[in-house]
User: Which sequence fits this backbone?
């Protein structure tokens, strides 16, 4: 935020300029065009700056005093109308959205509201976007495939694209049924930001659009707001209106997640917000159920993928069988037709069908070629083309003769050999002759050929049917495994209780397997089920159905002992736990239209999309299963004070500000709103989520999560403000571990990796969304492992055997080790550790336990000398203190210091032969400390305020807030005799 100050360091209200639509700011000379006029006076000027949303300004415009104004001021007042622009200095254009004329108590004013010029984008409709997959930004190599942002910006003639993060520009996403009733701004902020996981920012001065990856958009500041200094009030508002613990998930075209959700449904749950509220038994069940869901997710996905892959394989085999059956039918019908017609009249028609099915045609004739050409050249004929052109009923010889430079048939008509499927290579000469003979097979021979084809197809069918039977068995087993997982985490069955009791004393060891019982009764059964033993028939009778001969094992019931007539076993199932859980279920729905499945996708591709939908839904549920929180701070109006100019220049929506929320709890909060009243000098800040450097996207989530859960996310800020505990550098330790954890997470979550193993070794690489291979790859051979980030143009890290130049001998040597850009670790062990700079100069070495710094011979000499000079650390009677006894070396020429004659800092400190002077050009006080004393001077009139030297202390004004002690025995202080407090008493001090 930019605030101007006058010569007396008082802030100046921003200048407001009224412009016509189409006004443009020149970045060259800072001028505006299409100006209507400049406002001289506005009242109650307030600005509301929002992040990732339209901002607004409001002010009141008084009607000019007719007796003391010029006509142009009245014209200016009348010119304030909707759709005109207001340019706010150093902020940008605002589009007037509302003007209200007010006449009250003899005063006429206009109340004006204006929206930041993103409103121009909001006023434009989304152009036609055909269904398809779009790159975010047009690829210069394929400009014919227009990026979706380019398509939108073409409809915004005054707006241009500024910065686009490369990671966003190359992303592809699929869009279907994009409504042309949407406005472009809404489509950008709602659809594109979600689909491409990016952030849009708009420059309202230059009308430019920039886009950042949510992982990269971090704008830190040095601003530190505390309760003692700046915060007037801090409000944390919690809203549970849109809180859900269960959502039903769908993708585009009703894509479901039941094949990747272990419960086998399209509903997922998250009870984290209420887990501490639940009764202990229910809490334990929910925790166990959640852990079981997480444990079986991968197995459930793999089983379903294998199931549907085999199902696809079964479908293909069944389709092959259907084709074989059709071919057998065609061959049989062809054979019957030959018998009925005693000829081959309709064979070609059957062959056309058989060929379309991929089968072998029935061969009914033999085509041969002979030639009398004087030059031996290759000659071939395509039988189907030949038969087609001479007629299906033609049998005999067809003769072609080369005469007068052309080929002629037996009727002396010109012909083109290729029309008859004849290929003739070489140069023919006069009277060259080609004879093509077509002789039909015997009907018996054709029958033998057809019968053989039918037998081969029947054998193929038998093999296919065997494969089908094997697949059916495998599918049944997979389906059972899938059902077992679903049953194990079924939310209905996990939160009901099955109880068993008996009225007989002769039955002991009574147990029940709940899963068996569940499968034997209806899912909606919750009453008591009773079995009575009939001693006469020695069978159990189920009382509700009066069926005789029930096998209790079918219900999972087992017992020991011998039942007697009338013994009763009762099994009850109640849903008390489920009813309790239902109190914490708040249902909603979630549709993600960016997850698309197409007909050309394999089952593996489809499952990848379902898994993406499932994972995205879990992220959304995690957000909306916790109440929304918003931090609002009313602070001192520091932006209007010149002393805080450094802070003010960093203040803008979307930045991170350090805010003290509680004792020992300083959070980096994401600033979403700044409200400034320039007339009352009031400042209000609204913040969104806390910053988590390992989850930057969390800044842009609508739901912020519980404060206590994120209190450790800003530990590195606390380490800067509060002392490091226990002498341990938590920041470095945490950074090392987090580096490992992030790398591990990336490896475990990878799902686009490809592996190639061939003569060159093992190569690991992955494909990007655009189908191109990522340049970050790894190769492993027998002696080393190598990493690259530019597709093998260069090597970034090598582990194993590699060559290097020894800095001492300059010889090329081969050794096993690590050659990398960065090395991070807790401990570095080595008997011989040497560190060189880029010039090959030894900087540091640790050989055989001795540490040596080799920056220069001089620094080594000084180091050794200082080590010898440190003598003792001893304990003395007057307390524990460290005393360093410097032992001189006796060398008069020994210079162990580098003399510094002058030190000057940007903070106003100067240390030279005159002493230590403290003064900045803007300060009214100058401090000087030297070997003669301490002096404080007021710079405006050079008057000495305080002097302390050998003569004593001389002060301009000296205030003692409690006691003034003179010498060893006198003390002056305020005195109150009960009626008059305006007295001073002198006391004698008796030690």
Assistant:
């Amino acid at each position: 935020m930019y605030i101007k100050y006058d010569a007396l360091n008082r802030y100046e209200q921003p200048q407001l300029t009224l412009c016509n639509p189409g006004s443009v700011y020149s970045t060259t000379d800072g001028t505006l065009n299409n100006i209507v006029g400049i406002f001289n006076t506005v009242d109650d000027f307030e600005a509301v700056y929002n992040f990732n949303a339209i901002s607004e300004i409001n002010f009141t415009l008084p009607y000019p005093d007719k007796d003391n104004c010029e006509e142009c001021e009245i014209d200016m007042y009348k010119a304030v109308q909707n759709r005109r622009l207001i340019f706010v200095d150093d902020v940008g254009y605002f589009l007037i959205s509302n003007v209200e004329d007010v006449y009250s108590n003899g005063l006429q004013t206009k109340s004006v509201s204006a929206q930041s010029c993103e409103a121009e984008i909001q006023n434009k409709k989304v152009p036609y976007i055909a269904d398809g997959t779009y790159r975010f930004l047009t690829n210069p190599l394929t400009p014919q495939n227009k990026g979706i942002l380019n398509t939108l910006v073409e409809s915004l003639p005054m707006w241009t694209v500024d910065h686009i993060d490369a990671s966003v520009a190359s992303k592809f996403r699929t869009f279907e049924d994009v409504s042309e009733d949407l406005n472009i701004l809404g489509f950008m902020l709602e659809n594109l930001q979600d689909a491409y996981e990016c952030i849009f920012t708009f420059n309202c001065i230059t009308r430019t659009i920039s886009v950042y990856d949510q992982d990269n958009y971090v704008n830190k500041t040095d601003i530190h707001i505390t309760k003692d200094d700046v915060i007037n009030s801090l409000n944390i508002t919690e809203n549970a209106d849109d809180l859900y613990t269960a959502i039903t998930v769908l993708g585009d075209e009703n894509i479901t997640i039941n094949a990747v959700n272990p419960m086998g449904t399209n509903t997922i749950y998250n009870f984290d917000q209420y887990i501490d509220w639940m009764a202990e038994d229910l809490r334990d069940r929910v925790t166990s159920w959640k852990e079981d869901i997480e444990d079986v997710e991968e197995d459930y996905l793999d089983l379903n993928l294998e199931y549907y892959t085999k199902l696809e394989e079964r479908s293909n085999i069944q389709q092959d069988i259907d084709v074989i059956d059709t071919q057998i039918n065609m061959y049989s019908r062809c054979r019957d037709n030959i018998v009925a017609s005693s000829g081959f009249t309709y064979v070609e028609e059957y062959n056309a069908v058989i060929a379309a099915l991929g089968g072998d045609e029935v061969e009914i004739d033999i085509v041969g070629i002979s030639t009398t050409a004087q030059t031996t050249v290759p000659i071939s004929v395509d039988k189907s083309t030949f038969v087609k052109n001479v007629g299906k009923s033609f049998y005999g010889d067809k003769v072609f003769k080369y005469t007068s430079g052309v080929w002629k048939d037996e009727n002396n008509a010109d012909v083109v050999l290729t029309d008859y499927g004849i290929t003739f290579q070489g140069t023919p000469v006069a009277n060259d002759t080609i004879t093509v003979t077509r002789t039909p097979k015997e009907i018996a021979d054709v029958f033998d050929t057809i019968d053989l084809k039918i037998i081969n197809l029947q054998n193929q069918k038998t093999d296919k049917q065997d494969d089908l039977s094997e697949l059916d068995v495998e599918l049944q087993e997979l389906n059972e495994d899938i059902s077992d997982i679903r049953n194990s985490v079924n939310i209905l069955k996990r939160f009901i209780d099955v109880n068993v009791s008996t009225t007989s004393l002769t039955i002991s060891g009574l147990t029940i397997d709940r899963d068996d019982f569940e499968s034997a009764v209806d899912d909606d059964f919750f009453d008591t089920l009773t079995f009575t033993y009939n001693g006469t028939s020695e069978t159990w009778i189920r009382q509700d159905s009066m069926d005789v001969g029930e096998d209790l094992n079918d219900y999972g019931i087992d017992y020991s002992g011998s039942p007697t007539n009338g013994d009763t076993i009762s099994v009850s199932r109640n849903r008390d736990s489920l009813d309790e859980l239902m109190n914490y279920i708040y249902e909603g729905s979630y549709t993600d239209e960016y997850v698309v499945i197409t007909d050309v996708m394999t089952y593996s591709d489809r499952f990848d999309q379902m898994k993406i939908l499932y994972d995205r839904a879990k992220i959304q549920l995690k957000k909306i299963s916790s109440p929304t929180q918003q931090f609002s701070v009313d602070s001192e109006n520091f932006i209007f004070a010149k002393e805080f100019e450094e802070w003010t220049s960093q203040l803008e929506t979307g930045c991170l500000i350090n805010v003290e929320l509680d004792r020992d709890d300083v959070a980096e909060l994401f600033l979403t709103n700044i409200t400034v009243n320039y007339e009352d000098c009031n400042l209000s800040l609204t913040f969104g989520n806390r910053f988590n450097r390992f989850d930057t996207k969390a800044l842009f989530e609508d739901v912020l999560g519980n404060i206590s859960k994120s209190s450790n996310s800003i530990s590195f800020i606390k380490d800067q403000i509060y002392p490091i505990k226990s002498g341990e550098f938590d920041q470095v330790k945490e950074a090392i571990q987090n580096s490992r954890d992030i790398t591990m997470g990336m490896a475990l979550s990878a799902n686009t990796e490809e592996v190639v193993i061939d003569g060159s070794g093992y190569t690991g690489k992955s494909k990007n969304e655009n189908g191109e291979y990522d340049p970050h790859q790894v190769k492993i051979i027998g002696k080393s492992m190598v990493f690259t980030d530019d597709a093998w143009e260069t090597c970034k890290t090598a582990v194993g055997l590699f060559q290097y130049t020894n800095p001492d001998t300059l010889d090329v040597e081969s050794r096993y080790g690590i050659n990398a850009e960065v090395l991070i670790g807790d401990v570095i062990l080595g008997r011989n550790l040497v560190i060189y700079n880029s010039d090959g100069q030894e900087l540091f070495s640790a050989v055989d336990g001795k540490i040596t710094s080799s920056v220069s011979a001089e620094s080594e000499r000084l180091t050794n000398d200082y080590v010898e000079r440190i003598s003792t650390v001893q304990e003395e009677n007057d307390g524990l203190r460290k005393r360093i006894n410097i032992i001189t070396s006796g060398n008069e020429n020994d210079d162990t210091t580098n003399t510094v004659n002058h030190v000057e800092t940007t903070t106003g400190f100067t240390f030279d032969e005159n002493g230590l002077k403290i003064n900045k050009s803007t300060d009214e006080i100058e401090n000087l400390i030297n070997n003669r004393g301490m002096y404080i001077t007021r710079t405006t009139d050079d008057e000495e305020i305080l002097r302390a030297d050998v003569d004593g202390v001389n002060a301009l004004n000296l205030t003692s807030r409690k006691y003034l002690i003179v010498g060893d025995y006198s003390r002056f202080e305020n005195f109150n005799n009960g009626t008059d407090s305006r007295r001073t008493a002198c006391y004698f001090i008796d030690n």
Remarks:
- Residues 403 and 472 are 68 Å apart (CA to CA).
- The longest helix spans residues 280-341.
- The radius of gyration is 45 Å.
